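Posting for a labmate who doesn't have an account.
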Amino acid sequence: MRGTMSSSIKIESVVKEKNRMGECPVWEERENALVYVDINAQKVCRWSPLTNEVQSVSVDARVGSVALRQFGDYVIALGNRFAFLDWDTQKVTTIHELEQDKPNNRFNDGKVDPKGRFFAACPRLLYHLEKEEQMPDGMCIDVEGKLWVACIDGGRVIRIDPETGKRIQTVKLPTPRITSCCFGGKDYSEMYVTSAYDGLDEATLAKEPHAGEIFKITGLGVKGIPQNFFAA
């Protein structure tokens, strides 16, 4: 049976500063902050729920993903290269560049695996979505091993059982271009969801005042797991 939203679920917009293409949210426990990227604005951002302040670092290419380094700061995938980002100095140090003969290629979403390796790639279809769900985008895993998938242009995140391939829960968001999700907060019981306004025409934007904002979902009844650190 496919579940929908529970009455205990609460959705609120927590970051009003709009993103052209918000993506790759990561909860940074050591800073008690949400780190994410705005791909098309070429920015890495960090939001503090304590101060409600958004800080950002601009980079020289479209930045597809960000991950935490083991000893502080971040590793990012921007353009067709991997780099370290020093938050305090805003210095970006390239560590590896791929396919220099294909300058139009770029990395998209990325994650660190349990062995501390950072992977970034182009989108891949892992689940056959139904018509109203549109295309899959960013995703995360909860403590029960279930997969949460953001549905860009579907205005929702869905929970999937990876063993059966069945959708078991749907949470609808107040804007269509939902791009990614992660668990965070003190005990990882909160879900943070990014969105975008790029790709919406003026008429649609006028009807979508929350496009590009970041949302917090509580009351899901399941927790997430801490982010893996990039080992270098």
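Reply:
Got it, the structure tokens are right above this. Residues 125-129 have pLDDT under 50 and may be disordered.
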